[in-house]
Amino acid sequence: MRKPYSQYSEQEIIDKCRKDDVKAQEMLYKNFYGYAIGISLRYCINRDDALEAVNDAFVKLFKTIKTFDDNRLIKPWFRQIVVNSAIDNRRKNLKHAAVLDIEKAEENVVDPNIISKISAEEILGLLKELPEMHRMVFNLYEIDGYTHEEISDILEMPSSSSRVYLSRAKEKLRKLVKAHFYLNYERAI
Predict the structure, then answer these.
(1) Where is the RNA polymerase sigma-70 region domain (predicted)?
(2) Could you give the CA distance from residue 29 to residue 16 in angstroms, rounded to a whole number?
(3) Is the pLDDT of residue 34 over 70?
(4) How is residue 129 annotated by DSSP?
(5) Which residue range is the domain that position 43 belongs to?
(6) Residue 73: what are its φ and ψ, rounded to 5°?
(7) Cα→Cα distances 16→21, 23, 62, 76, Å
(8) CA distance 110 to 148
(9) Three-state secondary structure call for residue 68
(10) CA torsion 127→133→139→145, rounded to 10°?
(11) Looking at the structure, do residues 129 and 52 belong to the same domain, yes or no?
């Protein structure tokens, strides 16, 4: 008697996916969907774009799972697929969007204690207010841990541009933190 799919190990599910087992693919999809959508939402403008990127990522996963090295962990490997799919989706959509001028950053000091009072959800909300390229570079560098050289390859730009976008993203975030939270923080003291 076969055991239920819910009792299979991750490796057993991967092995079954390599044999194009639809039930195993469904299990892998269910196990990684939340993880994938969380990553994708950081790079995409809206939920529809994020869903499209996640679906593209799963298609790529199932097409390439036969080449997956069992000595690696699947989650970081899949994260890279999701990030690349989300960026590809943004690139496709950026062709239709107007290009923003790069603004000059100003030196502004924000009280570091404010940050400890902000929830992760509020920080993600602030990230959505950044211009697209700033948010994308910030996510790649600060959240996903890519180097400027890797970002340069992914986004097809000079690494110096990646550094500039990161610097400006951080400056814009400082301004957003100050604008959204500084007054409430001051009142709480």
Answers:
(1) 28-93
(2) 13
(3) yes
(4) T
(5) 5-94
(6) -85, 140
(7) 5, 9, 11, 20
(8) 26
(9) coil
(10) -160
(11) no
| Domain shared by 72 and 30, yes or no | yes
**pLDDT digit string, tens, across residues 56-77:** 999 999 999 999 998 889 999 9
- Across the range 19-31, mean pLDDT stands at 92
Q: Considering its fold, how many domains does the chain have in total? A: 2
Closest Cα to residue 54, out of 67, 35, 68, 73?
A: 35
What are 153's two structure tokens? Answer: 């390859």
What CATH number does the domain containing 183 carry?
A: 1.10.10.10
What is this structure's pTM?
0.60
**Spatial distance between the Cα atoms of 70 and 15, rounded to a whole number of angstroms:** 10
Nearest-angstrom CA–CA distance, 89 and 154? 13
Q: Which residue has tokens 């841990």?
A: 145
| Residue 3 or 133, more confident | 133
Residues 139 and 85 in one domain: no
For residue 159, which phi and psi values (nearest 5 degrees)? -65, -30
